[in-house]
Amino acid sequence: MAYSRVLKTLIRSTNLGSTTRNFSLVSSQISNHTAKWMQDTSKKSPMELINEVPPIKVEGRIVACEGDNNPALGHPIEFICLDLKKPAVCKYCGLRYVQEHHH
Gene Ontology terms, cellular component aspect (predicted)? Predict the structure, then answer.
């Protein structure tokens, strides 16, 4: 099973002594949750859902993405440069942005 670098680090940290938290249960919970999610093919994955949202057209060269109008539901502000013709993607939420004059 492939684990992310962060998860490997967390699992390794369990060997450091009794003062660290035990993260060995985390990997089994993540894999069980992921397996349950992948079994239900009737639901779309989060990436499929976000890809259904058309690119957001803006006039400027730089856009500030917050993920949502409500700061409590969004993510840290990411400033995205739109100099390329293809849509730029927010690394937090996957929303795509494009300059309006390119299309």
Answer: mitochondrion
DSSP 102: G
pLDDT tens for residues 29-87? 667 767 776 677 778 888 888 889 999 999 999 999 998 888 788 899 999 999 988 99
Integer CA distances (angstroms), 11 to 3, 31, 96, in order = 10, 14, 34
Whether the per-residue pLDDT at 95 is higher than 60: the answer is: yes
Contact of 92 with 76, CB cutoff 8 Å: yes
Write down the H helix ranges in 46-90. Answer: 46-51
Residues 65 and 55: their CA atoms lie apart, in Å, by 13
CATH: 3.40.50.20, 2.102.10.10, 2.40.30.20, 2.60.260.40. Which one for 40-99?
A: 2.60.260.40
89 Cβ contact list (under 8 Å, min separation 6) = 95, 96, 97
What amino acid occupies position 3?
Y
